[in-house]
């Protein structure tokens, strides 16, 4: 049993990491900014600190008093992304200093690169600015006595409660009357079910073999062809699939169009080998075909 400090514990991924760790007998301390988030965590037995990601003194103190840190929190504001990254770097810096020389785990979160490299592995350096800076900072702490790791999440972390890419795609497809893909639809999205992603954080925390500095890929599906995603969504909505141009994708899917155009197949062989991680939940296409969440009235996108 360890006392883990978590940021983003009430978020989409964090709300699955938290019960997994509690069920394993770990104690959790977490930050919460809102009353609703604080109550949600306290009702599960989590010790709550009322603070935000910008309160670096509070973050450092909580980290120093813990047996390890899982950093899931991030300000998802695309309109001021530079500020979100600045806050993230400051939080990571605070954690690194607090854990310096302790050999305690610091598990941070990043994204599988969807630009600059088609087939990234766990050994591929971060290539997607500005989040690559946070990866480099986290892994650098391994030389200062911190068991630091980065978990890269794919563009689509799916499952009930998802309010991100797939939710937006389904909503916009319904409005448009078709499920679009660019060109021949052979661009690819890595994906993972949120429950399988959450399991990785537990495995990294409890690992006795990881040395520090490793990057892990939470990729259940290495790369799903976008035309298959479109077909699954179209089938649920009762609309047609349609090949569209990048310009039309921008008109139909707004901020998501750049991600639809990206083509990434992400490897996770090393992650599975290092952790013994074996995804158990439905893959992306099967989840779309059976999910009520993405097609229920009232399901909203947060971005």
Number of strands: 12
Which class do the helix and strand fractions yield? alpha/beta
CATH topology of the largest domain: Rossmann fold
- Which sequence of strands runs across the widest sheet? 3-2-1-4-5-6-10
Q: What is the CATH architecture annotation of the largest domain?
A: 3-Layer(aba) Sandwich
C-alpha termini separation: 36 Å
Helix content: 25-40%
The averaged pLDDT comes out at 94
Tell me the major beta sheet.
Answer: 7 strands, parallel
Look at the structure and name the CATH superfamily of the largest domain. NAD(P)-binding Rossmann-like Domain
Low-confidence stretches: none
Strand/helix succession: EHEHEHEHEHEEHEEHEEHEHHHH
* Count of alpha and pi helical runs: 12
How many structurally independent domains?
2
Shape: globular
Instruction: Evaluate the radius of gyration.
Output: 19 Å
InterPro entries: Epimerase_deHydtase, NAD(P)-bd_dom_sf, NAD(P)-dependent_oxidoreduct
GO molecular function: aldehyde dehydrogenase (NAD+) activity
GO cellular component, one term: cytoplasm
Protein name: NAD-dependent epimerase/dehydratase domain-containing protein
């Amino acid at each position: 049993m360890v006392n883990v400090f978590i940021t983003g514990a009430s978020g989409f991924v964090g709300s699955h990491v938290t019960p997994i760790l509690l069920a394993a007998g770990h104690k959790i301390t977490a930050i919460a900014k809102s009353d609703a988030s604080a109550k949600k965590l306290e009702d599960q037995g989590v010790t709550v600190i009322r603070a935000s990601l910008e309160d670096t003194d509070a973050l450092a103190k909580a980290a120093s008093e813990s047996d390890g840190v899982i950093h899931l929190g991030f300000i998802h504001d695309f309109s001021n992304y530079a500020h979100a990254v600045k806050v993230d770097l400051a939080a990571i810096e605070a954690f690194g200093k607090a854990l310096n020389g302790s050999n305690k785990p610091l598990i941070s979160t990043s994204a599988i690169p969807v630009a600059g490299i088609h087939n990234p592995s766990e050994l591929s350096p971060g290539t997607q600015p500005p989040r690559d800076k946070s990866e480099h900072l986290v892994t650098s702490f391994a030389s200062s006595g911190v068991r630091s790791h980065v978990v890269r999440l794919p563009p689509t972390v799916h499952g009930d409660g998802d309010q991100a890419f797939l939710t937006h795609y389904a909503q916009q497809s319904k409005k448009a009357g078709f499920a679009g893909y660019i060109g021949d639809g052979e661009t690819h999205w890595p994906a993972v079910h949120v429950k399988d992603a959450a399991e990785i954080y537990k495995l990294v925390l409890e690992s006795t073999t990881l040395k520090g500095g490793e990057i892990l890929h939470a990729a259940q599906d290495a790369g799903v062809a976008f035309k298959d995603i479109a077909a699954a969504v179209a089938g649920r909505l009762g609309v047609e699939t349609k090949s569209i141009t990048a310009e039309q994708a921008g008109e139909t899917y707004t901020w998501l169009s750049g991600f639809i155009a990206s083509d990434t197949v992400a490897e996770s062989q090393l992650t599975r080998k290092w952790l013994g991680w074996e995804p158990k939940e439905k893959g992306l296409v099967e989840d779309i075909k059976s999910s009520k969440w993405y097609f229920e009235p009232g399901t909203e996108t947060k971005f």
